[in-house]
Design goal:
binds ligand C2E, binds magnesium ion, eight-stranded mixed barrel, alpha/beta
Length: 280
């Protein structure tokens, strides 16, 4: 009995594995045709000053208008896009969309001082990155690149460091994304002289109930501040979080307490009407 059960289990596993391979292959093909058909777009999540609650900017986040499955978030496709070596194409499409949308906002008289885009390891290490940026018109400080800690740990560190300097010299700011999820020390990260440090929501969410976590976040903010690096809290889900983060000296707030990511149209309507209110 045990033997037949073992075999069944094996077949079950095998069957799932095969289904996964087929699904991933289909998804990969759909990503490629989605790129061809312009199905990927940028959504925007607003960021606010902790001090004044003023709109300071937005983070652009990739979304996929899938022809049959509807709107898809990155957890459904980013890993496969990375595996088939097109994540950098998505990054570039998002930046193109941001620059186009910024012009539309300017024409409408809406001021969004800064928009940040997420940059994958593949794109940072891409030797043609700088050339592709040179073709764009970007005013100093209006765009920033969000890079996760792990980008600075892998092999081709030289290209990354070289590209980092060139990116800064083009007037694009650097932000460390998801700080606190990796194993890099804050000191080594701040040596990169980023403009901002984004504190991951896993660190931010417990601060209201846990004095220990509050102290940790407070120390991160203090170290960053002493080095002239701005701090952004991610995953700010309540007014209590927002108030506490302001008290701890955090500069910028981003999270569902203010707004989820929005389509260009919804973001533009809200920005034009200044309709954002802090949810409690
Ligand atoms: P991220 O860069 O850390 O972006 C923040 C994520 O947290 C977004 O998920 C956002 O919707 C979500 N979020 C915002 N506020 C809250 C909150 O209050 N509570 C909770 N629980 N979540 C919140 P999203 O849009 O699904 O993106 C997931 C990740 O995918 C991003 O994390 C980023 O790592 C990656 N990503 C998104 N767009 C791009 C892109 O254009 N290029 C690359 N390379 N990666 C991207
Ligand atoms: Mg990000
Ligand atoms: Mg993040
Ligand atoms: Mg995060």
């Amino acid at each position: 009995r045990a033997k037949s059960q073992g075999r069944n289990r094996y077949q079950f596993f095998n069957h799932n594995l095969q289904a996964d391979i087929i699904n991933n292959k289909r998804l990969a093909d759909e990503i490629l045709s989605g790129i061809e058909n312009g199905e990927f777009t940028a959504w925007y999540q607003p960021q606010f000053s902790a001090r004044t609650n003023e709109l300071i900017g937005a983070e652009a986040l990739v979304r996929w208008n899938h022809p049959s499955r509807g709107l898809l978030t990155p957890d459904k496709f980013l890993k496969i896009a990375d595996e088939i070596n097109v994540v950098q194409t998505l990054d570039r499409l998002v930046l193109d969309a941001v620059l186009r949308d910024k012009m539309r906002w300017a024409a409408l008289g809406i001021s969004i001082p800064k928009v940040s885009v997420n940059v994958s390891a593949r794109r940072l290490h891409d030797e043609s990155l700088i050339d592709s940026l040179l073709n764009l018109y970007i005013r100093p400080g209006e765009i920033s690149f969000e890079l996760v800690e792990s980008i600075f740990l892998d092999e081709s560190e030289d290209i990354a460091a070289h590209n980092l300097d060139r990116i800064k010299s083009l007037g694009i700011d650097i932000e460390i994304d998801d700080f606190g999820t990796g194993h890099t020390s804050i000191v080594s990260l701040l040596k990169l002289k980023p403009k901002r440090l984004k504190i991951d929501r896993q660190l931010v969410q417990p601060i209201v109930n846990s004095p220990q976590e509050r102290t940790l976040v407070s120390s991160i903010i203090d170290i960053a501040r002493s080095l002239g690096v701005e701090t952004v809290a991610e995953g700010v889900e309540s007014a209590a979080h927002a108030a506490l983060l302001h008290e701890l000296g955090c500069d910028l707030l981003q999270g569902y307490a203010f707004s989820p990511p929005l389509s260009y149209t919804d973001f533009t309507t809200a920005a034009a009407g200044q309709t954002w209110r802090l949810a409690s």
